[in-house]
Automatic annotation (TrEMBL):
Pfam families: MFS_1. One of its GO terms (cellular component) is mitochondrion. Its main location: membrane. The lineage of its organism: Eukaryota, Metazoa, Chordata, Craniata, Vertebrata. This is Major facilitator superfamily (MFS) profile domain-containing protein. Residues 1-88 are annotated as: Disordered. It comes from Etheostoma spectabile (orangethroat darter). It is a multi-pass membrane protein.
Length: 444
């Protein structure tokens, strides 16, 4: 099963509610092929008789012959099968070894940016003493990543759709490099303003990074690897390379598509493609709207906990700065394992909805346990509960991306991922400000 399977299953199960899934951006030729594939079955049902039996038998035979994960009939235009037979051509797909280099470089590139997001908050008590500022100002060094992302995600996804993966990645890598060098120049107690400026530059770079995992996975990897590849790309962001490496390795797309779902899509945007219309299509997709809110709450909670973890630990465990950092590391490493396992599970089962519900439930349970065991004066118990929380909450990040791609196919992967991240940032801002206020005024 590849991107688009879930769309067709939904339409077959409930033909009376097509508004839940938006399918667009077909060329006239592909639409004609799809209609020709559908006409014989429709006529047979209408007229009945022997023709119906023959057509039904042939359909069943074709269904058995095609592997479930490559079922071309589930693609928006039927995989172009009939049109290809008439023209004597066949959709050609190929997996390139280069895809692993692209994935590795992107993961490292994402790692460097994610490290700069949380590097101040994880040792907030150290930076408040060094720069002579309050905790809320250090918190804003993390929150600025979320604030900047929301307005800039729309031009960033437009750039990804119009100019491709390579230019977007290079722009993000360049800004990330500039921000890192500015931080090196801000190592002085009176240069907190330079630190803030550098963090803003890095936060702009993040806009060109967070929406790329699902695009990298779908454009370069086959149907049995997509979820694992997306999880690995997200893993790089959770681990915490350069512009030259990105330039040498990352390309917009391979010469031949890796799967049939990519093969039937146009290699470049049609002249009548409208980015605004794509956004409207996603906003009319009820399933995607539910995912937006749920993903935003889940990931926003994770952002809030990551930002304020040092303050929460230091409130209950004095002189435990080192262990506070180790707890943060435990949360991240457990999340890495969860990301990979979720990706492997999805590639094997494609059970997006069931897996989502299970992870939501376990994440909520983990958050409750973490909250009510934080003040038990047992630092080792905090390691365990933080690890469990990170495993499920971070493990859901690639699942949310891939689920979004599935239920919005064939809309752009960058657009759906960008909107998911925008809602995550929005909820992250809200939760961090509220929790930061509660941590300052009351106990965590």
């Amino acid at each position: 099963m590849v991107a688009g399977d879930l769309v067709q299953e939904h339409l077959r199960a409930d033909t009376g509610a097509p508004d839940d899934i938006t399918v667009g951006r077909k060329t006239p030729e592909l639409e004609g092929a799809a209609e020709r594939c559908a006409e014989p079955t429709y006529d047979a049902v209408k007229t009945g008789g022997a023709g119906e039996t023959d057509t039904g038998s042939r359909a069943l035979e074709q269904e058995k012959e095609v592997p479930p994960d490559e079922r071309e009939a589930m693609l928006p235009n039927g995989g172009g099968g009939e049109a290809e037979e008439k023209q004597g051509t066949k959709l050609e797909t190929k997996l390139y070894p280069r895809r692993f280099a692209v994935l590795f470089v992107f993961s490292m590139y994402s790692l460097v940016n994610a490290f700069q997001w949380i590097q101040y908050s994880i040792i907030a008590n150290v930076f408040t003493r060094y720069y002579g500022v309050t905790n809320d100002k250090v918190d804003w060094l993390s929150i600025v990543y979320m604030v900047v992302y929301i307005p800039l995600i729309f031009p960033a996804t437009w750039l990804l759709d119009r100019k491709g993966l390579r230019l977007t990645a290079l722009l993000g890598a360049g800004l990330n490099c500039i921000g890192a060098w500015l931080k090196c120049a801000s190592v002085s107690p009176e240069l907190f303003g330079v630190t803030v400026t550098a963090q803003v530059v890095c936060s702009v770079a993040q806009v060109f990074i967070l929406g790329l995992p699902s695009r990298v996975a779908s454009v370069w990897f086959g149907p049995g690897e997509v979820s694992t590849a997306c999880a690995t790309a997200v893993l790089g962001n959770q681990l915490t390379q350069t512009v030259c490496v990105c330039s040498a390795v990352i390309k917009d797309r391979p010469l031949l598509p890796p799967s049939h779902s990519q093969a039937v899509l146009p290699s470049s945007l049609s002249e009548d493609y409208s980015y605004k219309q794509s956004i409207f299509n996603l906003m009319k997709n009820k399933a995607f709207l539910l995912l937006l809110v749920s993903y935003g709450i889940m990931t926003g909670s994770f952002y809030s906990v990551s930002t304020l973890l040092n303050q929460m630990i230091m409130s209950y465990y004095e002189n435990q700065e080192l262990n506070a950092g180790r707890i943060g590391l435990t949360l991240v490493v457990a999340g890495m394992v969860g990301s990979i396992l979720c990706g492997l599970w999805l590639d094997h089962t494609k059970t997006y909805k069931m897996t989502t519900l299970i992870v939501y439930g376990l994440s909520f349970l983990g958050m409750v346990v973490f909250t009510f065991t934080l003040d038990l004066n047992n630092i080792y118990l905090v390691f365990v509960t933080a690890g469990a929380l990170g495993f499920f909450m971070t493990g859901y990040l690639p699942l949310g991306f891939e689920f979004g791609v599935e239920i919005t196919y064939p809309e752009s992967e960058g657009t759906s991922s960008g909107l998911l991240n925008a809602f995550a940032q929005l909820f992250g801002i809200i939760f961090t400000l509220i929790q930061g206020k509660l941590t300052t005024v009351h106990s965590p």
